[in-house]
């Protein structure tokens, strides 16, 4: 059974585990570094859950994916409180397959489902604009976003440093309007 829902504070340990796995397995697509995150405490991750929107993908009651969104200005700036930035989307396909035997085609549907669940939730919270930055060569993520109503607004050249390969990568800047 597939369920999408907002994570609660008591799920901090499974959230941290999946977050660390995302930073290991998708390091080139994430803005944070595993080496920085691995030493952060559970309290740090509890604050992430408390201060951000964190939508989880559960397959047969096992957390297999997450996507996060944050209000601009932490929600403390009324002029931009209607805007969010989406970040940290990750699905552990091995966990999904091991849990229920889903295949790669379903994985794409799970990503769209996860992002759509987040967009629906954000809309219910008064968010009308959501932005994201995606590594421009990550066509699967760009297509997933386009399938949920995002549009590519522009490419930001050299938008993120890849510390492993010591080079900059371009970012596709995408926006969804939730009105």
Oligomeric composition of the shown chains: single chain
The N- and C-terminal alpha carbons lie at a distance of 30 Å
Give me the CATH architecture, please. Answer: 3-Layer(aba) Sandwich
Largest sheet: 7 strands, mixed
**Count of folded domains:** 1
What CATH calls the topology is Aminopeptidase
Regions with little confidence, pLDDT below 50 for 5+ residues: none
Approximately what portion of the residues adopt beta-strand conformation? 25-35%
The Cα radius of gyration reads 16 Å
SSE order: EHHHEEEHHEHEE
What's the total number of strands? 7
Q: For this structure, what is the CATH class?
A: Alpha Beta
Superfamily (CATH H level) name: Gcn5-related N-acetyltransferase (GNAT)
| Helix proportion | 25-40%
Structural class: alpha+beta
Sequence of strands across the biggest β-sheet: 1-2-3-4-5-7-6
């Amino acid at each position: 059974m597939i369920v999408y829902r907002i994570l609660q504070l008591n799920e901090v340990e499974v959230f941290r585990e999946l977050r660390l796995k995302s930073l290991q397995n998708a390091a080139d697509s994430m803005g944070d570094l595993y080496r920085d995150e691995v030493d952060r405490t559970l309290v740090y991750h509890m604050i992430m859950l408390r201060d951000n929107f964190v939508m989880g993908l559960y397959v047969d009651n096992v957390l297999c994916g997450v996507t996060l969104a944050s209000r601009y200005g932490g929600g403390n700036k009324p002029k931009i409180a209607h805007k969010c930035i989406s970040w940290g989307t990750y699905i552990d396909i091995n966990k999904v397959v091991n849990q229920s035997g889903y295949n790669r085609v379903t994985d794409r549907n799970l990503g769209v489902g996860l992002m759509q669940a987040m967009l629906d939730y954000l809309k219910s919270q008064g968010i009308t604009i959501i932005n994201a930055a995606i590594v421009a060569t990550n066509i699967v993520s760009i297509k997933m976003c386009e399938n949920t109503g995002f549009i590519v607004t522009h490419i930001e050249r050299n938008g993120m440093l890849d510390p492993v390969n010591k080079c900059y990568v371009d970012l596709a800047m995408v926006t969804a309007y939730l009105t």
